[in-house]
Amino acid sequence: MLSERCASLLVFLAAFFVYLSAPVMPVSDSKWTVFETISLLRRGDLDLNEYSPALEIFHSHGTVLVGDRVYDYFPSGIVFLGALPIWILSRIYGYGYLEANAFAVELTVASLLCAMAALLFFRAARQKYSLLISLGATLILALDSSVLSTASRALWQSTGIVFLTCASLALIARLDRTEGNHWQLAGLGGILALAFVVRPLSIVWSAPTAAYLLHRYRNWQSVLLLAMPALMIGILFLAFNQAIYHRFLPPYYNATRVFDLSVLAAALPGNLASPARGIFIWSPVFLGSGVGTALVLARRDQKSYFLPASLAILLHLLLISTFPHWWGGHSLGPRLQTEIAPLYAWLLLPFLDWVSARRSAVYVGCFALLAAISIAIHLRAAFVVDVNLWNTRPDVNEHPERIWSWRSAQFLAGNDALRFLFKQQ
């Protein structure tokens, strides 16, 4: 037990140290989050009117005007996840210091949430798998994915979903271990509802998860435990929107922003294998997740959470591939797939277990190579500013054809020696 606790602490501290040390911070959609949180803690509201100098500096980018009040255009759910650490920091430094150093605060809180997510994922994996396998999958999630290069860099919506997904995995794994103890269902109901408040896209993960739980625990007590917290959060969310926007859903939740099927043919392969946004280019280690899915399908284990996780990944890929700007604008790699990184890592667990049972040097060597490539790519994205600046040289939104360019691959930006390998001779 002591060694496991030490491993848990090591996972958290190592992840937090790496995240906090990385200098690249691609702040964009999240830039108002710290100000919103301070406004909530100090004044009890979420408007940004008291920050008129900052609004002028950023030309009110990413805000919406409702009457005479200015609000963040992007979902405010992440504010509630970051409120406690920001309140603690305010007791130490004061609100004025936090406002003057908002980006540093944002990086600290994002790093904390992602390190906590890694810890929760590790605890979930340890419910069924060995210490070594659990530690391996956790380090891959923490360092070989967009959790490092995106979620830990700022308080994105995806940062909150990564944390909530890992929290849900910990509760589901606990349910699997203690069959009949269903109070964790109440926590899961709250998490699934809060995820929609943090990011509407999370419904492609929360819906399969809720269906899985309802199928598995088919009695009225379990349904109530799952539904009541979700219903309470849903009512509060709708009432909040009605009070501010005079509508049940804020503007960001407009479904017409997606479902452009004309881009699907280009977007789907781009999200999978383009050098700038492909999940299997930036995190080739997740190819093992596909093998893990095949192993689960072969077992036909309907009680396992692996099948809902696979479905959530598929639905997420399809939905983001109907977004007109499917490449996510100025992103570091597959940013729009950040929130499903925990699910990819979860599907790695049966694959790692399978590799471990065979003790094959070839399998281990190939997997280690893919893991090394993945961590090198995401470390460069988090530590080398040129990787982020690639988006503006020239602007990728004006020249989206660059997404498929191997001659100027984003993950190699700033390293002419490596880029030379991809230049045509």
How is this structure best described in words?
- A hairpin with a 2-residue loop joins strand 1 (63-66) and strand 2.
- This protein is mostly helical.
- It is built from 20 helices and 2 strands.
- A two-stranded antiparallel ribbon has the order 1-2.
- The mean pLDDT is 92.
- The chain is 64% helix and 2% strand.
- It has helices at residues 2-21, 33-43, 52-57, 77-93, 95-100, 102-125, 131-143, 146-151, 157-177, 184-198, 203-216, 220-245, 264-273, 279-282, 287-299, 306-320, 341-358, 361-383, 385-389, 416-419; strands spanning 63-66, 69-72.
- The longest helix has 26 residues, at 220-245.
- The N and C termini lie far apart (57 Å).
- Helix 6 (102-125) packs parallel to helix 9 (157-177), helix 15 (287-299) packs across helix 17 (341-358) and helix 16 crosses helix 17 (341-358).
Distance between the termini: 57 Å
Q: What portion of residues is helical?
A: 55-70%
Low-confidence stretches: none
The Cα radius of gyration reads 21 Å
- Overall pLDDT confidence: 92
Beta-strand content = under 5%
Largest sheet: 2 strands, antiparallel
Which secondary-structure class do the elements indicate? mainly alpha
Shape designation: globular
Total strands:
2
Order of SSEs: HHHEEHHHHHHHHHHHHHHHHH
Number of helices: 20
Strand order of the largest sheet: 1-2
Throw out a few tags for this protein.
mainly alpha, 425 residues
